[in-house]
Amino acid sequence: MRVLVVEDEQLLADAVATGLRREAMAVDVVYDGAAALERIAVNDYDVIVLDRDLPLVHGDDVCRKVVELGMPTRVLMLTASGDVSDRVEGLEIGADDYLPKPFAFSELTARVRALGRRTTVALPPVLERAGIKLDPNRREVFRDGREVQLAPKEFAVLEVLMRSEGAVVSAEQLLEKAWDENTDPFTNVVRVTVMTLRRKLGEPAVIVTVPGSGYRI
Fold this sequence. Notes:
The model has no long low-confidence stretch (mean pLDDT 89). The radius of gyration is 18 Å and the shape is elongated. Strands 2-1-3-4-5 form a five-stranded parallel β-sheet, with helices on both faces. Helix 2 packs parallel to helix 3 (59-68) and helix 6 (152-163) packs across helix 8 (189-201). It has two domains: 2-117, Rossmann fold (3-Layer(aba) Sandwich), CATH 3.40.50.2300; 127-216, Winged helix-like DNA-binding domain superfamily/Winged helix DNA-binding domain (Arc Repressor Mutant, subunit A, Orthogonal Bundle), CATH 1.10.10. It has helices spanning 10-22, 33-42, 59-68, 84-93, 105-117, 152-163, 171-178, 189-201; strands at residues 2-6, 26-30, 47-51, 74-79, 97-100, 127-129, 132-135, 140-143, 146-147, 208-210, 214-216. The longest helix is centred in the N-terminal third of the chain and has 13 residues, at 10-22. The chain starts with a strand and ends with a strand. It is built from eight helices and eleven strands.
């Protein structure tokens, strides 16, 4: 899952991004509304965690732009105000969910994951395919009943492949969904991660390489 965090309180923004990365999400961070508009113009995000009171371009206008562009991206709006009228106004602008500050990080994570599931065809919370059982909320993976310990990026790649339900996923798509914008697009990090993931999942191999196209399960 790829997430954009838009928050002008830099310590908070960086803390949220770090926490979401530990949950195997690819996260980009910006600190004002203008930068947010630049990012959504060039990158596809599953979820935007959007502070409402932003400098340069207000969060409401960023949200309106997402709606105007018809993007499948879901918006979780943050605000220091817990007033009901503010929540209603944010939802009417086009936000998909609303979370007042201060918030518990566990709740933020749960809401981001719930919104992320709504950007694609609805799938069960626990994914199962080819003897693999993946629970995104618990960050657990089992292969034929055996628990498999995965690093965050390995987990993210496996989740993308599982969600594709047998379709081929290109290296470029994996890079886009599992890594942030600071990753060199010419790196071999996808190939190396898939190799490590195959080894950890064990035999028989379930991740198939489709020459010239990508990978599938």
